[in-house]
Amino acid sequence: MNAAVLLFPGINREGDVARALKQATGKAPAIVWHAEHELPRGVDLVVAPGGFSYGDYLRCGAIAGRANIMGAVRAHAARGGYVLGICNGFQILCEGGLLPGVLMRNRDLKFVCKMQHLRVERNDTAFTRQYSGGQVIKVAIAHGEGNYRADDDTMARLEGEGRVAFRYCDASGAIGGAANPNGSTHDIAGIYSERFNVLGLMPHPENLIDPLVGGVDGRGLFESLARVSLAA
Amino acid sequence: MQSKEPEITPGLVAEHGLKPDEYQRILKLIGRTPTFTELGIFSAMWNEHCSYKSSRLHLRKVPTKAPWVIQGPGENAGVIDIGDGLACVFKMESHNHPSFIEPYQGATTGVGGILRDVFTMGARPVACLNLLRFGSPDHPKTRHLVSGVVAGIGGYGNSFGVPTVGGSVGFHTRYDGNILVNAMAVGIARKDSIFYARATGVGRPIVYLGSKTGRDGIHGATMASAEFDENSDEKRPTVQVGDPFSEKLLLEACLEIMAKGCVIAIQDMGAAGLTSSAVEMGAKGNLGIELDLDAVPCRETGMTAYEMMLSESQERMLMVLDPEKEAEAEAIFHKWGLDFAIVGHTTDTLRFVVKHGGEIKVDLPIKELGDEAPLYDRPHVATPKKSAVDAASVKPPVGNREALLKLLGSADLCSKRWVWEQYDHLILGNTVQQPGGDAAVVRVGEGPKGLALCTDVTPRYCEADPFEGGKQAVAEAWRNLTAVGATPLALTDNLNFGNPERPEIMGQFVGCLEGIGEAARALDFPIVSGNVSLYNETQGRGILPTPAIGGVGLVADVAKTVSLAFKRAGECILLVGATAGWLGQSSWLAEICGREDGAPPPVDLAAERRNGDFVRDLIRDGLVSAAHDLSDGGLLVGLAEMTMAAGIGASVRKTGEAPDHAWFFGEDQARYLLAASAGNAAIILAKAADRGVVVENIGETGGNVLTIPGEAPVEIAELRNVHEGWLPGYMDKAAI
Question: I need a surface site. Which of A198, B622, B701, B703 has the fewest CB within 10 A?
């Protein structure tokens, strides 16, 4: 699997996700500068990492979502290529038209960084094969604007088509109330595109790949992706 | 030489914070009346914040050297050798005055400034910490200040992309009018590529990098060198505005040009902006500097030389460039969307010359601007010694169970989760030990090596006895690093005091510094960088003396560190260090009895060393499963913290002669609590006897309650409720 990590000014978790990809695939991903118009040849997976692209000024992800490279990313997704957006990357994919909806300020208007349980809603996608369906995993969250919102029709489609990838939950897998850290609609932590080849999520599985640093519950995502190949 | 500039009058001189004798010194030095811009420059260079004029004399007395120290005080940050060709670069700095006036921006620019100090030296920042002190929770401004400062620290560090891994937060009415915001940054560099401020070579281009210059922050350093009065809010325009996005770009661009070998000398523009950075680079390199302000990128039109030289706009750097690499460096800066302008060159004249609009606005001797700054041996009187509190004579007003719950739910000892969950403490994926423990542990790259980091001070102790308090601050930092298994290597200090022109305040400063020096010497824990913040005083009322210590330790293998959380039931709880039951200046005496009274606990540095070295060896040998240093709140608070961390209960039995309340809550120093299996406990007790360390087996882990002799057991859930509940409850009360 060949991965490319997009680099926009102000992105700051590109190294974290590159490390997770390298651990899972044995290969360092290509780093692609935002001003480019083309992705490297043979890329299977494009990753928009976490951070504060353009300082989150204007609106999270709004400027990066319109960067030169995003045209190539949209074309890649349209061809069925895989795209992963984490945190600010999720916001960028929403702003760039690859995923529906928007991420608003957290319910209590504060940035929140902590360990958070997620329920893996399905394990039959390229992103989650290494998890079991309904598995509860513990990963990090670190965001000020992770409160997912979409109009009612979009929400109905997302739910109806099974496009919710992860939901915030407690250690037992129960959702709602205090288990939702940011007020996100339907406790959504991540969603898929219609064809399940684009995933956007707020949490940081890339920071949970080492037993010495919080645990390894994030590895499943990258190990699942390590097996995808567009050529195959 | 002058055009349209105000005439220099005694009133104007006074407005610049310069005393009449200091102005006479200027006249004597340059042999003429200074221009308006020159007066501004003297004001910027000779204020307390930049010149250390009240503190320099005493700062010379602390130990700053050790075989592993690469760079001590005097550069942007301290540098120590951590082996394998790597160096750790770190410093702590205050942003107290601006944070009181404008908490969010004051705190952000404090974090931004200290990060710049670290990456200016070629290091990539890997962690931030802080030490915060606020006024009484009952003070009407406190909630607003806490909210703004915490959001500001997070707002900058989170966006910049460095984990904020630790800190210290406290409250006291003596900070009602002057809060403390001390920020520490830690970076990693290759030992053979550290960058310094010292310019070399004549005729080399001086390059301005980063954001544009605006009118913000003019006289910021002068503001930070005076007391507040009832009109302190009017100083809001002197507070700078932070832009973490620009700083992140500046970081990446600077590290890139450094890696390409473009940089000869580099200095960040912090306090006193363009003035102090240019003067410092020239003076350190025995060179003159000539600047042409027409080339300075400005955010606003019509800026005068005076404004440009004194602006404290953030996210800017000044650099002496290798002339052959000019095009390469410029391309890198433009790629990152940052300004890059050649604004001057080095000269052999030893003059600091500033031109603007074809006129010479400044022509001053460059070395004297720094070297000839006033140096004061201010009168100081020692704080009178207080007598010890006789523990037996203090009748406990409540039982030990109730006292414990009250302490755990007090403003100072409650969980600070509400604070550190607003900081991204996990980014970079190397945070092996998170906030909430004795020290944070951050892995270096792919490991196995790691850094242990902490910030500490107990201002109550320093107020009661500056010398012992200064010793204690260093000893506690050393102990916190030890408690995770690290070898303490060096420290940075941030000396926060009131008005040094008052002999009793100067006495606190001198006393604390002597204590710091003594402890640093005894523990081989040199001071490699630091900052002095004086005039933390409002209408004649000074803060508690607060010499904040930021400690850095090294662990050879992060897998071998321990946390304070109990790991399993059925283990022995061991108390290391002698417990006499010292109640003077304890949290128990303050919170439970309402008395801030008596002498603080004395610090026996030989015992600190002996006990700490013992504990560190046990951790490295894998004999203990949990370790915790005992400090504020004493033994029972420490035990409760170990219990709450993983939800494993404990029962404790009292030993020794001290009255119960003194044994449980006394703050005797040089103590640790450990957990170990029964087999390992026996080995530890035998080793302790050999090494002359006092170790007692005082209980067992297990269950879901904390059992205290003579009291009903306390559910862990109840401990957690009071411990976790206070701060969110306080902050949620309306009127933020």
Answer: B622
pLDDT tens per residue across all 232 residues of chain A: 999 999 999 999 999 999 999 999 999 999 999 999 999 999 999 999 999 999 999 999 999 999 999 999 999 999 999 999 999 999 999 999 999 999 999 999 999 999 999 999 999 999 999 999 999 999 999 999 999 999 999 999 999 999 999 999 999 999 999 999 999 999 999 999 999 999 999 999 999 999 999 999 999 999 999 998 765 4
d(CA B486, CA B88): 15
Instruction: Please name the residue of chain B whose CA is at the shortest distance from the CA of residue A23.
Output: B446
- Amino acid occupying residue B17: G
Residues of B involved in catalysis: 49, 95
Kind plus residue range of the DSSP H or E element containing B248 = helix B244-259
Q: CB–CB of B520/B527 below 8 Å?
A: yes
In whole angstroms, what is the distance from residue B178 CA to residue B622 CA? 45
- Is the pLDDT reported for residue B236 higher than 70? no
Disruptive mutation site among B424, B443, B484 for chain A (greatest number of A CBs within 10 Å): B424
**DSSP string of B632-661?**
TTHHHHHHHHHHHHHT--EEE---SSS-HH
Q: Does A187 contact B at CB distance below 8 Å?
A: no
Determine whether the interchain pair A55/B243 forms a contact, defined as Cβ–Cβ distance below 8 Å. Answer: yes
Residue B582: name the closest of B472, B485, B696 by CA.
B472
Tens-digit pLDDT profile for residues B524-578:
999 999 999 999 999 899 999 999 999 999 999 999 999 999 999 999 999 999 9
Q: How far is B446 from chain A (nearest CA, A)?
A: 10
Is position A206 annotated as part of the catalytic site? yes
Q: Which residues contact B238 (CB under 8 A, 6 or more apart)?
A: B98, B101, B217, B218, B219, B220, B223
Could you give the C-alpha distances from B148 to A141, B134, B589, B633, in angstroms and in order?
Answer: 22, 12, 31, 28
A64 touching B, CB under 8 A?
Answer: no
**Closest-CA distance of chain A to residue B224, Å:** 29
The pTM (predicted TM-score) of the whole model is 0.96
Determine the Cα–Cα distance for residues B210 and B453; give it in Å rounded to an integer: 30
User: Which backbone phi and psi does B664 adopt, to 5 degrees?
Assistant: -75, -30
Q: What is the ipTM of this complex?
A: 0.97
> SS3 for B557?
coil
Residue B704 to residue B714: CA distance in whole angstroms: 9
Q: How far apart are CA B620 and CA B108, in angstroms?
A: 38
On the question of pLDDT at B215 being above 90, the answer is: no
Calculate ∠ Cα B237-B241-B245, nearest 5°.
170
C-alpha torsion A112→A116→A122→A128, nearest 10: 90
Residues B577 and B694 sit within 8 Å (Cβ to Cβ)? yes
Considering CB atoms only, which of B154, B159, B429 is closest to A207? B429
Domains of chain A, each with CATH number or no CATH: 3-225 (3.40.50.880)
Are the beta carbons of B151 and A51 separated by less than 8 Å? Answer: no
Partners of B97 in beta bridges:
none
Please tell me the distance in Å from A168's CA to the nearest CA on chain B. Answer: 17
Instruction: With beta carbons under 8 A apart, name residues in chain B contacting A52.
Output: 158-159, 161, 244-245, 248
Residue B605 pLDDT > 50: yes
- Is the confidence at residue B2, as pLDDT, over 60? no
| Nearest in space to B305 (alpha carbons), one of B254, B264, B361 | B361
Residue B687: closest CA among B576, B561, B565, B570? B576
Q: Hunting for tokens 């661009």 — which residue is that?
A: B253
> What are the backbone angles phi and psi of residue B617, rounded to the nearest 5°?
-60, -40
Q: What are the residues facing B298 on neighbouring strands?
A: B213
d(CA B156, CA B150): 10
